Amino acid sequence: KGRQLIVPRAAGDAARFSFADLCEKPLGARDYLAIAGRFSTLFIDHVPVLGEGKRNEAKRFILLIDTLYDHHMRLVMSAAAAPEGLYRAKRGTEVFEFERTASRLVEMQSRDWLEGWAERREVAPLAKARQAQV
Q1: Which of 31, 53, 55, 116 has a Cα-to-Cα distance from 89 of 20 to 30 A?
Q2: Among 47, 92, 96, which Cα is nearest to 68's?
């Protein structure tokens, strides 16, 4: 029997959550897989800079980003810092894991990532959309 996951805002195949909704609650891989299976675009608001005092939240965030990345999702995120500055700690396994997370966040912002996302969803690639606007 699964628990119910509240989606604060959704329209079509897009959903919007706050960082607190996704990482400050006891959610796990199954929850993030359910989100990735239902939506193709995810908005995450208010991502803070995390430190050693927020290790559980950092672990959840790492798992969340891994899941979104593995499902080739489009991510729109408001954060207190650039990806490489979102985790500030000097020790712990999260330091090394977060390097991968930051790298994935940068890749998910790239033109190649977004064009690939569009192609997988049979949406005109960004280049074609831009040409139509001109």
Answers
A1: 31
A2: 47
pLDDT of residue 67: 98
88 lies in some domain:
yes
Reported pTM: 0.87
Nearest-5° Cα angle at 31, 50 to 101: 35
Question: Does residue 102 fall inside a structural domain?
Answer: yes
Provide DSSP, 24-87. Answer: SSS--HHHHHHHHHH-SEEEEEEEPPEEGGGHHHHHHHHHHHHHHHHTT-EEEEEESS-GGGSE
| Domain region containing 97 | 10-133
| Per-residue pLDDT at 113 exceeds 50 | yes
Cβ contact 126:111 at 8 Å: yes
Total number of domains constituting the chain: 1
